[in-house]
Structures are given as C-alpha cells and as structure tokens.
C-alpha cells in the first residue's frame, strides 16, 4: 500500500453518473485500509478532498454514506486528521447528523458565518438513519482524539448541539418535563448504538466544567433523563457498544462538575466539606461527598445508581480483576453521593428499590432489617474482587495499576458508608469480625487467613498498593468508630500501626483491648488479647497484669529484700552518700547510685499501706540485730588475738 496516494482521488473526473463507480471504488478502498498505512500528508489531502465534496453536497445518498465512512476511517489516526477539529469541518459533519438544532430558544443564537452553516434540521429530516449515525461517529472520534474540537463543537448551531443531543437522549422518558414538544416527533426510539454514540459525545463535551453543564441540568433536566436511562438499560450486555458504561461516565461528569458553575468563592472547612457562597439562590446546595458540592437537583440520580449496584452481576470468581466497566463506573458515581443527606435512599431495601433477590455474601440481616442491602452488595463485590489475595504470596497478585484503579474506589465507598451510616458500620463489623472469630494464639494469624478479613489485612500491609492500603485502613478505622485503641484491638497493633501513624496517632501499642468501647458488650472482647497480633493466648503467661492486694504485698516485700541485699553488697554500694562532700568522692572511690534511693527520688515507688510499712520496719530491726551480733563477734575475735 505504499503506492496508495491521494491522487487516486484527486485525479478522478467530476462526480457524475459516469464516474460514480470510480468514486465508490476509491472510497471503499480507503474504508478497508488500516489507518496506519496511509501517510499523514496523504491522509490530510484525502480528508480535505472528501470533506469539500461533502460540504458541496456533491454525492448521492449511497456515495455520501461511503464518504462519511471513509472520513471516519481516516479520522481514527490523530496524526494528519487535525482537520476534523476545525470548526467549519465540524459544521459540515454536523449537517449530516439531522439533530433537531432548531428546537431551542434559551441558548444564544449563532453569531458567525460558520455557525450559520450548521443546518436547522427537524427530527423528521432523517435522524437515526445510517448517514446520521456515521456523522455522529465522526464527531465522537474527533472529540476523543482532538481536545480542541470539543469547544468548537459546543459553539456550533448557536450552542444547541449539546441540548439537541440531550433532547434525543430524553425522548420517551417519562421523567422528562421540560423538553421541547417537537422533540417527540422522532420517527423511532433511539437505538442502543445511537444512545452509546450520543452519550459518548455528551461525555466528551462535559469533561471540563462549563456553562453547558449548567444549561443541561437546569433547563433540560439532564439528571432526570439519565436516571430514566439508567433504570431501563440492562445492567449486563455483551454488545461492544453497551450504552450503560457511557451513561455512567456522563453521570459522573455531571455529579463532579455541577453545581460548581453556580457557586463562587469556594473554600474547604475543617471536615473536608466545602463552604461556598451561592450565586444562584434558588439552588439548594449542600456539602457532598469527597469535598464536592451537592445540589438537590441531583437527588434523583441516587436511587437508580444504588438500584444498579444491587442489580449488577458479580464479577467472575476466576477473573475478578479488573471488574466489568459498568461496575467500576457505578462505584465512581456512588462515591460522589453524600451519605447523611441521602441516608434514607442509601438504606432502601432491594424490595423497595424493585431489585430481585440476590444471593450475595452476608445476606443475613442486622436487627431484623433489610437496610443493609447496599452494604451486602459492597461486601459481595469485595469478596469477589479480592479473590487473588487468597494466595498469601505475591506472585499471583494483580498489577499495581489495576488494583489502585479499581479496589481503592470500592474500599473508599465502603469506608464512607461505614463512617456515615451506623447501620452499615454495624453490619460490616459483624461480617468482618463475627462473634465466633477464632482468636486463639495457636490459630492462624489474622492477616494469613483466607477470609475477607485476612485478604484485606494482606492488602493493607503490602507496600505495593499505596492508595488501596489507605482505603482499607479507613474501613477498619470507621468500623472502630475512629478509635485507634479499638482498631488495634480488632486487627492487632502490628497491622494497624502504619495506618495509625499516617493519621497522626503515634502512641505505643495498647496494653490490652479491655478499653475498647465498641467491644465492651461483645463476646470477642478479651482483656487477654495480644495487642500486637490481636490473638488471645491459650496458656502460659497472659497479658493480664492485674494482682490481688496480698500478691502486691508479697511482691513489695520481695523487692525490698532484694534492694537491701544489693545495698549491702560492697561491689555495688560504693557510692557517696547524699550530703557528703564532693572531695570524698574524688579520692579514688567510684561514685555509684543507690538503687533504692533512686527509685524513691524518681517517684517510681508509691506510698505503702500500713501492713507494708510494718513489714519494712520488721526487716530493719532484723538488720540491726544482725549488725549488732556481727559487731559482738568481731569484738570477741579481736580480744582473742590480743590475748
């Protein structure tokens, strides 16, 4: 194909009945040629010649479809296809989409000649036919490969491109109340492929914050349209053009960027939320998740997203990483929802949401309620998606990039729900730390077990996954009511130390778990737990240091006897007594410290009760008698020697 030059097209005679087959033959050759075969300079010439004829409406309907397919093929390579980012070229392609650009009056009218060239077509002009679909595909590819094309397309048609796409997306939606009436004159419902392309274009147009997002939300009620589309779109599809992931990506953009365009002077408070000055006073704006702003206009998206989470099929046990795109996108959207303002929606049962029963792990309810269906769904995902960590060695673990992009989002969502919803926290605690959890010292360490708890601890203590380990730590921290001692008691200080240090808790490991507030009434609360491993010893010395009063007295007596013996030892008691002159210590005698005196002066010894003091006095009297007897024996010995 080195000889495939643009002059094959430019040398053709004027288009007509006699040359029609020649044009079609060259166009088919372009369509069947890989994009990398044609040189960039030749690609640019091909595009220029074909687009010029499309602009002049030279081709008949069959040749027009072939020409658009050729432009789509040439535009798949970003090098040499920069022409597709030009506003005039976008206007030419837009003229073949048959979008209902004349159905809006709220957006400003065209202001330049390029915009005037875009047609003001009605829905009956052929939207949804193959020609229209190919033109939309060209726009989608151009927006994906050339960022500058996004702003250019947004301004075409008097700024009506985005709203017209929303019109088509919302046609037939019962939740749509503000769409133009003639937008419902379309001859047929949009097909899944058309919805995929339209949503992809809208996603690319809303990647960055802009006034277009405000228009789509406030004037066209895009959240209601998206909520309806998410409800009626099957959660699992084998089609490569499955519209659900694209709908979720567009939803994520809206949740991320709206209502930021309605506020100014944004600042963050101590809790990580935003304090903002509302410009649009009619908007009910409040703090959302992860520091984002939240508007009540977005509330309608919460229920279908949670419903989708409960309806999505779990990833395959054999290949849990990465999960299906729809699962990842659903988690991303849910992560932007606030917990407390939408607590009633988060705690809806699957029956209230219209979800069929499932067999996810952790199906037992807490306190006889079905409010934990969302927590059950997340725990089920965690069970499947952490399956590779059943192997305690790292050779079978997925790559860092995949794990950080998928698991961290799931675990952050679980942590947020545990921190914001007490019912979810209790259910998660009971699932991870059941009442019959084996904490015997001779049992397997918590982090080496095949349960979800063991897999989470292996991920948390692995140095490979920096974001994921923090997210898992947040789960345990939230389950522990943000109490570091409780967290250490649950998983062992050895597992919790790194995370607690990153949170600013630098205290030493707790002596025992007896002070754990959340474990006071649970059978698993054991004052003999090893604070480092979280296990309880089965025999031998324990970590319980409590003593009876009699044991304390006997221990005190034993210690004082030992100290007195040390004091009498000439090798130890060579120190200079307190109050003696410094010079006496400088005559060659090495200074030492009286351990008894040092203990008393340092405050390590507390006041003794009367029985202990009496024992000390008795010992002192015995020492005095011993000294007197020793002096008598010494005097007797001297007298015999002098005799």
TrEMBL record:
<dbReference type="GO" id="GO:0001965">
    <property type="term" value="F:G-protein alpha-subunit binding"/>
</dbReference>
<dbReference type="GO" id="GO:0005085">
    <property type="term" value="F:guanyl-nucleotide exchange factor activity"/>
</dbReference>
<feature type="compositionally biased region" description="Polar residues">
    <location>
        <begin position="511"/>
        <end position="530"/>
    </location>
</feature>
<feature type="region of interest" description="Disordered">
    <location>
        <begin position="511"/>
        <end position="551"/>
    </location>
</feature>
<dbReference type="InterPro" id="IPR019318">
    <property type="entry name" value="Gua_nucleotide_exch_fac_Ric8"/>
</dbReference>
<feature type="region of interest" description="Disordered">
    <location>
        <begin position="106"/>
        <end position="128"/>
    </location>
</feature>
<feature type="compositionally biased region" description="Basic and acidic residues">
    <location>
        <begin position="584"/>
        <end position="594"/>
    </location>
</feature>
<dbReference type="GO" id="GO:0005737">
    <property type="term" value="C:cytoplasm"/>
</dbReference>
<comment type="similarity">
    <text>Belongs to the synembryn family.</text>
</comment>
<keyword id="KW-0344">Guanine-nucleotide releasing factor</keyword>
<keyword id="KW-0143">Chaperone</keyword>
<dbReference type="Pfam" id="PF10165">
    <property type="entry name" value="Ric8"/>
</dbReference>
<feature type="region of interest" description="Disordered">
    <location>
        <begin position="572"/>
        <end position="643"/>
    </location>
</feature>
<protein>
    <submittedName>
        <fullName>Signaling protein RIC-8/synembryn (Regulates neurotransmitter secretion)</fullName>
    </submittedName>
</protein>
<dbReference type="GO" id="GO:0007186">
    <property type="term" value="P:G protein-coupled receptor signaling pathway"/>
</dbReference>
